[in-house]
Specification:
Number of domains of chain B: 1
Number of strands of chain B: 8
Subunit structure (chain B): NDH-1 is composed of 14 different subunits. Subunits NuoB, C, D, E, F, and G constitute the peripheral sector of the complex.
CATH architecture of chain B: Orthogonal Bundle
Number of helices of chain A: 14
Structural class of chain B: alpha+beta
Strand content of chain A: under 5%
Order of helices and strands of chain B: EEEHHHHHEEHHHHHHEEEHHHH
Helix content of chain A: 55-70%
CATH class of chain B: Mainly Alpha
Catalytic activity (chain B): a quinone + NADH + 5 H(+)(in) = a quinol + NAD(+) + 4 H(+)(out)
Order of helices and strands of chain A: HHHHHHHHHHHHHH
Number of strands of chain A: 0
Structural class of chain A: mainly alpha
Number of domains of chain A: 1
Strand order of the largest sheet of chain B: 1-2-3
Number of helices of chain B: 15
Protein name (chain B): NADH-quinone oxidoreductase subunit D
Shape of chain A: globular
Pfam families (chain B): Complex1_49kDa
Strand content of chain B: 5-15%
CATH topology of chain B: Cytochrome-c3 Hydrogenase, chain B
Largest interface: A-B, 29 and 30 residues
Oligomer: heterodimer
Subcellular location (chain B): Cell membrane
Chain lengths: 329, 373
Amino acid sequence: MMEAAATSGAYWLRLIVGLVIVLIFSQLNALFLVWLERKVAGHIQVRLGPMEVGPHGLLQTIVDGIKLVGKELITPARADRKLFVIAPVLVFMPVLVAFLVLPFGPELIIRDMNVGLLLIFAFSTFSVLAILVGGWASNNKYALLGAIRSVAQAVAYEIPLLLSVMSVVLMVNSFRFSELVMAQQRVWFVFLQPVAALIYFICATAETNRAPFDIPEAESELVAGFHTEYSGMRFGLFFLAEYTNMFIVCAVATSLFFGGWHGPFGFSFKIPGVVWFLAKTYVLLFVLMWFRWTFPRVRFDQLMNFSWKVLIPLSMLNLVITALVLKLV
Amino acid sequence: MAEQFPQPAQQQLYSLNLGPQHPSTHGVLRVLLTLDGEYILEADPIIGYGHRGHEKMGENRTYLQFMPNASRMDYLSGLLYNHGFCLAVEKLAGIEPPERAKYIRVICAELNRISSHLLWFGTFLMDLGAFTPFLYCFDDRENILDILDRVSGSRLTYSYCRFGGVARDVDDVFIEQTRAFIKRLRSRWPDYHNLVTKNVIFIHRVRDVGIIDKDLARRFGVTGPNLRAAGVAFDMRKVEPYEVYDRFDFEIPTGSKGDALDRYRVRLEEMEQSCRIIEQALDQMPDGPYRQERVRLKVKPPRGEVYFAFESARGQTAYYLVSDGSPYPYRVHVRVPSFGNLHCLTEVLKETLVADAIAILGSIDIVVPEIDR
């Protein structure tokens, strides 16, 4: 069946159009998120944020992007040149793949794969590899420390992240996004699996290296962490990847726990599914930003303790209870 | 494989230069760290990057000409240094300022102390990774700068005090603004406590971190809030009251353990105590001249020497002036609190994490140009 579909022209057209849309959307979205972050930060801190370029500074990030493109790409003298150049590309490519399977609306999934959820988590691990490569190749102690921290953090937080996702998968018996979302037509999983949702969101914050878990790039400690030596658009790619990653984890959270394109309790108020989906995702993104501008940074060992001693046992327990309840009901 | 990659005979240590250019070294400080992974085995603060030769400059300038230098050593509590220098010269030359001037000086000095502590609060939290309190503090601090700007003409490096008084009298607007500021600051405490003091992450980052106990503090000459956090109620304003500090009812907040949390609490409480002093001073302030009739621009103290210690925002600060009877001091020496506060880090930073080192460095509130002078 796959072969038949693959040869048809419609399939290729759909894929290519999808990829182009994904590229444009992910870039614009990342730029918009950077602007949003600065606005949210500004208003939380009783100031206005960017106001000069465009209405309410909307074009500020685009101008910043142009500036980054125009900047010199500096490679440190004793850096591992090949790895140093590859790392920013490596961090950005995988995040695009995730967009192929995200369920923006009932009809708005580019490829509704039966392993969609698995694909996202498999590819999101790539960003850790990129950070390690970038930090190692920079030949800078701060960058190396950041890279080491990042790997340890990713290992610690991917386990509870996947365990919390598994409890939802157990309920639906599928990795396919469309089925996961359809199962939430009446009741969102956040009400059935509040613990899993909470664990997922905490881990997602850590997974995207956001405050209070931003220790790989802890500014006051490691200057800029793994991207200390990066300049110009290479830094820009790390930066955009961070925001795109944020969007992806929030989009996954929306589809797993907050009903995807469905309105609350089956009421859609005649609003299209894609609007529901994006609205919920942006609310979650706002919460992520809210975290960042409120909390101090967690210390590295405390972060590891929290994951191994609290989150993993808790998510394990949650999974076992879910399995038991499903077996009994 | 094992032959290809032989295990090192011992664990590899490496050194890391924290600074002189680093986001959280508060000026140009360099700390040479010897690290095992993220654990610090040895820490060696290296100073002197901001040396401007203030003490030597003092020997080539008249007493009045040295005044702007005083506030540039510690740019965060400039008025306190300015005030201290005036008092030292007045003690040396036997000048007695009028009552009103004394009160004006105390009010402005305490305002400056609050502004210094507010800035510390913001930068400390920024070192811990919380950016927002920094801007809240700067918002509050801006009020103080505006108030002091109105009377002294400068916002950071004040030269407001004069030998035998102050440069300009204060008016009703100043008093009104100061009272309004104190009211505003007090209304902000609940916000700060909700945002920071009650934050679990914050508590975990600072509790039992960087303990400076009494013994360590004595050995390194640690003074100020860092010493008081260890439980020693030592404050020059109480121990050797100068100016009119003996007329006010205020307390010396102390901690118990001497960890970063204690230092945090002591400084927050000190701001409140400074508010109390200002309020009392505003109530008691008499009318009258704000400086002596005959303004002394060229002081010629008699032959002799004076050591005058006062409490700046960072601890016990002192001027040692030697006069040979000429309008130029023979020797100007400054005892700065940050020196002792910083150098106890060689012991405090041992066997801590890099993240802790930043938290400790932030919690002791150093101003590096003050050490370098």
